[in-house]
Amino acid sequence: MLGSGDPPTDRGARRVRPGELERHANDGFEAPDEAFLQYCDNRSQLLADHMEAAGH
């Protein structure tokens, strides 16, 4: 995904590498993001209901 070889040992160089991803690699993140944002149920309420049912 980020090219061949091991990740650079330099932190600055590692932070630049994700910017080198090709467009098709980033496209893989868009569909799940859109599905999450289009989810109709109230996610906050689902979480609250789950926490209550779990005794938290």
Q: What's the number of extended β-strand segments?
A: 0
Molecular shape: elongated
| CA(first)-CA(last) distance | 40 Å
| Alpha-beta classification | mainly alpha
pLDDT under 50 segments (min length 5)?
none
Percent in strands = under 5%
Order of helices and strands: HHH
**Largest sheet, if any?**
none
Helix % is: 55-70%
The helix count comes to 3
- Using only C-alpha atoms, the radius of gyration works out to 19 Å
**Can you give the mean pLDDT?**
80
Count of separate structural domains: 1
Overall description:
The protein has 56 residues and is mainly alpha-helical. It has one domain (11-53). Helices cover 59% and strands 0% of the residues. The chain contains 3 helices and no strands. It has helices at residues 11-16, 23-38, 43-53. It is elongated, with a radius of gyration of 19 Å.
Topology:
Elements: H1 11-16, H2 23-38, H3 43-53
What keywords describe this structure?
56 residues, mainly alpha, 3 helices
